[in-house]
Design goal:
Structural class of chain A: alpha+beta
Number of domains of chain A: 1
CATH superfamily of chain A: Electron Transport, Fmn-binding Protein, Chain A
CATH architecture of chain A: Roll
Largest interface: A-B, 104 and 104 residues
Radius of gyration of chain A: 20 Å
Largest sheet of chain A: 9 strands, antiparallel
CATH class of chain A: Mainly Beta
Distance between the termini of chain A: 27 Å
Oligomer: homodimer
Number of helices of chain A: 6
Low-confidence stretches of chain A: 1-20
Amino acid sequence: MTSSSQQHQTELTRKPDRGRQDRADLDVVLDAMPVGTLSTVVDGRPWVVPMLFCRDGDRLLLHGSTGAGALRHVAAGSPAALSVVHLDGIVVADSTFESSANYRSAVVYGSLSPIEGDEKDAGLRKLSDAILPGRTTEVRPSTGKELAATLAMSMPIVEGSWMVKTRSGPPSEPGDPNVWEGVVPLGLTVGPPEPAPWLSAGVPVPASVRALADGWPAR
Amino acid sequence: MTSSSQQHQTELTRKPDRGRQDRADLDVVLDAMPVGTLSTVVDGRPWVVPMLFCRDGDRLLLHGSTGAGALRHVAAGSPAALSVVHLDGIVVADSTFESSANYRSAVVYGSLSPIEGDEKDAGLRKLSDAILPGRTTEVRPSTGKELAATLAMSMPIVEGSWMVKTRSGPPSEPGDPNVWEGVVPLGLTVGPPEPAPWLSAGVPVPASVRALADGWPAR
């Protein structure tokens, strides 16, 4: 994401001609972590909020509070973008200009729509299970009051309205072989589950949590 | 970032009355990782790109290619926002509604300005050294051609035009002590430096890379 890769990095080139492989690339990036940045426009200015989300086939699912005014504005169909970025490493070259970063990033452009009625609970369950697979089978169903307090939203993934960009590997151009160049890799790790302090002794860790702790992402 | 915390999460509440402590909170979040999401408005629609950045006192520094048209648009003073989000854990409650995520997030609103003249090289060096401290002392200076190909930009951090939101700890409301609740912690880790394949044998790892590999973030 520094100079040597900026031509690719900063030009928003939508890719209507990209085929299945690239859509698969998009899905891999979207599925790698359940947090992104939702951007929209309010009064001509950017409005931005980090959001939990998941991909459900050809749509994104998000949720929020029905009390959040700006989010309702987004859900009413304003143009929006959901972006994710994973920093995978610092690319060290023999000049700052050729140094870079390894990353996976995606932006999906579109409009959010509220999910209503029977589909709402199902959408929220999908979002929960994307973050912590199987959890919805371990807990009680959401109550009507809880559902009413939650804004469930979807954004279709439309061909030609998304981009995925990744960089990996060492510097693009080999330099002097006697000057160190390479990559400092970065990665997200999951730690051992931390029980809440009020738990009784010996309460078993549920299967969903054990699975998450054993592998990230869970999907 | 799920239901129980959404009132805080999704309402964009700018905090003009927050004092020094909160500004310090902002700095901690901004300094934790050098990648964020730059959002602006192009033709009434959101335009979003992941960017390397750093905080330099009361401003953010970013860079891009001078060939990137939309980025020049941003650098020309369009309203913009730089956001960062770090996912620190999955908060597991006894209902999906009370489940949440631990995170640190920040959004800085403002306008980008290009950095020109004598300040340009200095700004780019600060950005490089924020990502990999000390690296600029180990490599040759940037050439005039490299500087000309790079767009250096700054965004002031103005009181009242930023927000920082964090969540930590177990579920907000204790549930049944016989049902497991808690947190699955997530964290960014740095791996051992990976030399480029063309390096000669025995080329030492430079001090900047050793320091980064020993602790992240480096700052």
